[in-house]
Give the backbone structure.
Amino acid sequence: MITKKDFKKITPFIWEIPKTFRVDMRVPARILASENLLDDLFKDSSLEQLINVATLPGIQKAAYCMPDAHEGYGFPIGAVAATIYPNGVISPGGIGYDINCGVRLLKSNLEFSDINHNQGLLAKRLYEEIPSGVGRGGRLKLEDKKLDQVLSQGAQFLINEGYGEAKDAHFLESFGKLSNADPNLVSKHAKDRGRDQLGTMGAGNHFVEVDQIEEIFDNEVASKLGLFKNQIVILIHTGSRGLGHQIATDYIRVMQSSLHKYNITLLDRELACAPFSSEEGTNYFNAMASAANFAWANRQLISWGIRLVFKEMFNEDLNILYDVAHNIAKIEEHEIEGQVKKVIVHRKGATRSFGPNHPEVIDEYKETGQPVIIPGSMGSSSYILVGTIEGMKEAFGSSCHGAGRRMSRHAALREVQGKKLKIDLETQGIFIQTGSIKGLAEEAPLAYKDIHEVIDIVNNAQIAKKVARLKPIVVIKG
């Protein structure tokens, strides 16, 4: 059993479990945390899961936990791991069930004073425009041909259909499309689950949130990103819905049954995997890309609905700052032990945060580094950061993805009354529209870690740099 004595302190914010801790570890396990958040990780199975990740065939450098980490399926949520391309493994548990769950930020030219008398109506109109909740269908029900086009083309398909502007795709990670997507590798069941869910938010921790920029930490970078104090911005947090969940379910089953074929022995079958170059590995990667494209299209259609409301209420056009995925696997090149290697980077509850001048960062952000969008919880702040050169050297150019749960949903329900929480938030100037008071209680701010502490660790560890802090004023939940 692991204890704090087993950790080596690398820096004030980076801790390491050496690979000598357990005979089957191929690389060390590294945790980005304060002493306080490190103590939190002993309360669930996160550390044991991270050590298990460090045993995966082909893993490189280290298995990483971000400061928002907590227990997940196989991998902790908040984990990053890279395996060697092409013969290292790919593991669906390292991406998660909600493939390309991610966050988009829309910018306005409005200030808080422009909307503060209309928050209640704005919340009502956004809730009417954005379908949310478990199993809720959207405005489009896609027949097979169009659904396959969504899976192949991602956000670009929606833009071509009139649900966006030509420039939108430029400001999305991977331009809102992974080109290796193959709809033929997505099961009929998965397609049927997603067929009417495009443009829907779902439930759980997904949301649409209107925020006011409360503080700017770096005026020069903020100016280059088109951000200013008191500006109104909108966050969209959702993913690939039932389609992505079913793809994960399908391929976890496939990989669990093929472990023997590749002589892979696992302590935890939730880490089911296959060599990337194998039929099982390649098929999963291409099906995963299809789900990722669905998620970018999903956020595109939700953006269209939000734009309608802001045009109607304030005659305001909204532009995309950026859109980041935080449940995805990608083939990237990174310097490892003095050599540039091609690797399969798994990010599960972790956000890509590429630094200045990286070839995959668009020209508009070459100088600043890629925007990194980190949402908090309903009653707490969210943050905008940018990637750093130092971060490229540590965790494969990755950052955290949110505050991270510190309390289960069941525990939150024991502590929080949803109706009272809604009233309390409204007294703080945060207008809530939700279809589930129970779901609201499950997502109460006290169920999450301190977002300010999480962001300070990321900033002080130099894997991403703080630019702005956002305050929620309208929240739409399923």
